[in-house]
Each structure stands twice: as C-alpha cells, then as structure tokens.
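It is worth pausing here to work through a concrete case rather than discussing structure prediction in the abstract. The textbook approach is simple: state the sequence, then state the predicted structure, then interpret. We follow exactly that order.
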Amino acid sequence: MAQKGNAAELGTENIRKLLVQYAVPAIIAMTASSLYNMVDSIFIGHGVGPLAISGLAITFPLMNLAAAFGSLVGVGASTLISVKLGQKDYLTAQQILGNVVSLNVIIGVIFTVITLLFLDPILYFFGASEATIPYARDYMITILLGNVVTHMYLGLNSVLRSAGHPQKAMIATILTVVINTILDPLFIYTFNMGIRGAAVATILAQIISLCWLIRIFCNKEELLHFQKGIYRLKGVLVENIIGIGMAPFLMNMASCFIVILINKGLKLYDGDLAIGAFGIVNRIVYLFVMIVMGLNQGMQPIAGYNFGAQQYHRVNRVMQLTVIAATIVTTSGFLVGELIPELAVSAFTTDRHLIDLSADGLRVVVMFFPIIGFQMVTSNFFQSIGMAKKAIILSLSRQVLILIPCLLILPLFWGAKGIWFSMPISDALASLIAGVMLYKQFQTFKRHHAAQQQ
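Step two, the predicted structure:
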C-alpha cells in the first residue's frame, strides 16, 4: 500500500530531507496554533480590556491540566505507533488508534464533569480575584464543555502525523487557526459575547477540524483507519501509551503547578495586572517554544521508527539536526525579547502600565533562551525513542527540581523580580543536566552501531 511506503521511507530516506518533510508542516501547524492563542489574547485585550487578559492568564493552569491529560494519550500513542510501524507491526498500530479514541472520550468526560463541579474554587486557588474571576469563569465553562472535542482533535492529529501524513496534520491545525481567527471578532464584537465569544470560536473551529480528521480515518485505503474491534481497551496498550505519555503528562502537570505559583506570587507582590503581564509574556515566548515543539514533532516519527528498526546512526543524525534548528529558533526569541520587547507586547494592549510590566518581564524570561531549545529537544528525543524514564527526569529537572524551589525562595528576597528571574535560572541549570544525559546516550548508540558493523 502507498501508505505503508510513507512510513517505510522513515528508515531509508535522507535524514535532512525527512526532517524538513516532517518538521516544516509541524512547525507551520504549531506556529499557527500559537498564533491562534495569541489572536485570542489580542482580541480579548483590545476588545474586552486589560483585566480580561489577567482573567485569561488565570485559566492557564487549568488549560495546562487539560493538556496534560490530552498529551498522556496523544503523545504516548503517536510515539508508540511510530515504533510499531518501524517494527512492521501494523495490527498493533491499528489497535492503538482505536484505543486513542476510547481513552480520549473516557478521560475527556471525567475531566470535564469534575472540573465544572468545582470551577470557582479551582480558579480562586489558581490566583483569581473578585475582579478577574468573571472573565476566567466565562472562558473556562465553554472550553470545558468542548473538552472531549479538544482531546480527540489533538489525539487524532498526533496519530495522523505518526502514520506518515505530516502535511494533512498541518492542514488540520491551520484549518482550526483560520476558522478561529475568523470567528473570534464575530463572536466577541458582533455578537457581543466578550471573552466567552473567544472560547466559543475556539471550540467551533476544533469541531470543524475534527470532522475533517474523522473523514480521513474513515478511509479504508489508509494504513491506519477506523474499523470494528479496535476500540476495546487493551491493558498492555493502555499501559504502554500511558507509560510513554507520562513524561509530557508530568511536564504539563508541573507547568500547571508552576503557573499557579507564578500567578499567586505576582498577585501578592505586584497585583492583578502583573498576572496579565505574565500572560502576555507567556504568549510571546510560547510562539518560539511551539516552533521548537514543531521540530520535535518532526523528529519524533523519524527517531521512533529508526530506533525501532535499530538504525542508531540515523537516530543520532536526526537528533543533531533538530538541536541545531531549535537553537536557531530560541536565539531568535532571545533577540526579540532583548531588543524590541515593548514593540512585541504592545500588540496585546494599549495600557501603558501593562506594557511596561510585560516588557520588563520578557527581557528577563528570555535571558538564557538560546540554550533552552537544546533542553526541549533532548527531553523529547528520549520520549520519541520510548525511554520514558529519562524523558521524565529531564522534564521534572527543570519544572520541579529547579523552578519550583526558585519560585518559592527567590521572591522572599527579590519580590516580583524573584519570580521572573526563576525562569531563566531553571533554563540554564536544566540544559546542563540534559547535556550530560544526552552525551551518555550518544556513547551507547555509538557502541551499538560499532557492534552492528562487526
């Protein structure tokens, strides 16, 4: 089948060509996804007001929590599919697709019900005040009602990319962004729905793209497609999916807790607008992070397939090329944050105080940004080849072992500045840990490759 050929080329085609072929669509998709979040913030900032941006920032931990459960299934399944395709185990890959659908429905419904029941206490715990909770509540109720759609859309998109269709996965994401961008002003301004309108636009855009993805997987000519008998959960598959997906799950869970600490600290030392400033900085930084994540998504099927096929020299090569590209991206983010921070943040608001707070924060956050791309790629690399424990260690080293203590200790001496400086400090130290672990893994690959040549 032609679709099998798409997967098989991962083990034979030139690595640089493959990385471009798989990463460029993913980068375009992830950049579009980031821009789509930025568009939401820009429309909300200008159409609703500066406190609405703070209200939106309050929802970030909850969004990270939802993303944690989504990545637990989506990332774990897509990585496992890549490995199984490399092993020519097409039957198991097909069963993984069915389990993705079932797990997303189950987890999505449970998460939605529990969160809606305790939404206000959760938002107050995340740092909301009487001034910001109406905005946060209005946004999250709609987002949570569409949570199953979001999980299914992201999960099937990840599987589609791993099955050898990066361009189609890119189109699905771009379709979501374009529709959301069109619907945002319609619901926020024309229908006068405010911040709730932005959430409605987001969910409607995802519903339309999900319908397109379902149509693709209903095509029986595809290597992976919907069919009877694949939706029953299999213990071994679920265990493997969750085991591999545990690294991004824990990373998102840690991100959730970290954003809570940041929001609470900024509210304590600098007030509600400081939370909005972090929201703006987060959106800008996220643009460059998402590009690196696009590179990681391009690397993932290549590394996973060749690791499954025991072609370790190809695994090494794709890792090296991805690190170089990621470093170029994050260095660009560093230059934007240090040279033109006011220009970057002014796209979100005209409030002078919020602009000043955001620009100062951006300068600090990107201080060690050139090396964070390396750390992100290394963590994803271990995840891509199924080494979940190492990926978890790298994820937690930055988020839990370094950043959380910094967020708890530094503000006691520096106030709000201690919160902002915690982020680049953790970036620098986590990159050093990643370098040591990657060097040791490359030495192992070299020994395996040498043994194969004998």
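Step three, interpretation. The CA atoms of residues 28 and 170 lie 7 Å apart. The two ends are 34 Å apart (CA to CA).
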